[in-house]
Amino acid sequence: MSDHRSFTSPREARRVAGPSAEELLVEASTAGSADRRHLLDEVVVRHLDLAARMARQYAGRGLDVEDLTQVARLALCKAAHSYDPDAGGSFVAYAAPTMLGEIKRHFRDTGWLVRPPRRLQEMRARLRVVEEELRQAAHEEPSESDLADALDVEVADVREARLCDAAYHAVSMEALAYGDSARRAGGWDGGYERVEDRMALRAALTGLSSRDRLIVRLRFVEERTQSEIAAVIGVSQMQVSRLLTRIMAGLRASIEDARESSTEPSVA
């Protein structure tokens, strides 16, 4: 006689046998701090698979799936803490849009680092060639004005391309650094330096004001002209130029500060 026993994971068995997520959250709403934390943790653990599935839906779009999973998990924790049992509806129906919203926000805030606009990619390639040619000819580092003249563009375009180069190179080096287990073990230190650049740039972007972040998105993601950006935020084109210069200088400074901090010897 064949054996038809079903094989159920411990997590699935707990989900079937124990109280529902909604029941746990109702209990958590009146529990003391320690018990509440335990109950909320239980709800989060039960739904980690859901967070992972939602993150995988956005895999292959330029951002690391592990980063997306962490974003989804943090949103799941947020949902568990803010869920209102009295509002009705299942916890999943509440948590899923919360996780989706955070994942989309993560793409909006950081996705431009991975796929710079084609115009900037082309400018970046030309800039690197011309920069090397001028360096060899003059035996010194070319100024931004020299580069702009050689490329027949504005100095602001050179600055944008340099920022694009820092972001793009950080991402591509990160992919190489974490491409296999040997590299993850530390086989290529240069890759980690670029990862730190990307992390510093991401942190700097997060610290921008809402208007500055809007300007960055309009310029780098939507490829709006300075005049178009001026119309959107209600200032002059000249003010937009100054704002972009200030924003990019701040982002570059954040990367440089992070590099200096990472190379400072630790004090025992």
From TrEMBL:
<keyword id="KW-0805">Transcription regulation</keyword>
<dbReference type="Pfam" id="PF04542">
    <property type="entry name" value="Sigma70_r2"/>
</dbReference>
<dbReference type="InterPro" id="IPR007630">
    <property type="entry name" value="RNA_pol_sigma70_r4"/>
</dbReference>
<keyword id="KW-0731">Sigma factor</keyword>
<dbReference type="GO" id="GO:0016987">
    <property type="term" value="F:sigma factor activity"/>
</dbReference>
<dbReference type="InterPro" id="IPR036388">
    <property type="entry name" value="WH-like_DNA-bd_sf"/>
</dbReference>
<keyword id="KW-0238">DNA-binding</keyword>
<dbReference type="InterPro" id="IPR013325">
    <property type="entry name" value="RNA_pol_sigma_r2"/>
</dbReference>
<dbReference type="InterPro" id="IPR014284">
    <property type="entry name" value="RNA_pol_sigma-70_dom"/>
</dbReference>
<dbReference type="InterPro" id="IPR000943">
    <property type="entry name" value="RNA_pol_sigma70"/>
</dbReference>
<feature type="domain" description="RNA polymerase sigma-70 region 4">
    <location>
        <begin position="204"/>
        <end position="252"/>
    </location>
</feature>
<dbReference type="Pfam" id="PF04545">
    <property type="entry name" value="Sigma70_r4"/>
</dbReference>
<dbReference type="GO" id="GO:0006352">
    <property type="term" value="P:DNA-templated transcription initiation"/>
</dbReference>
<feature type="domain" description="RNA polymerase sigma-70 region 2">
    <location>
        <begin position="44"/>
        <end position="112"/>
    </location>
</feature>
<dbReference type="GO" id="GO:0003677">
    <property type="term" value="F:DNA binding"/>
</dbReference>
<dbReference type="InterPro" id="IPR007627">
    <property type="entry name" value="RNA_pol_sigma70_r2"/>
</dbReference>
<protein>
    <submittedName>
        <fullName>Putative RNA polymerase sigma factor,SigF-homolog (Stress response/stationary phase sigma factor)</fullName>
    </submittedName>
</protein>
<keyword id="KW-0804">Transcription</keyword>
<dbReference type="InterPro" id="IPR013324">
    <property type="entry name" value="RNA_pol_sigma_r3/r4-like"/>
</dbReference>
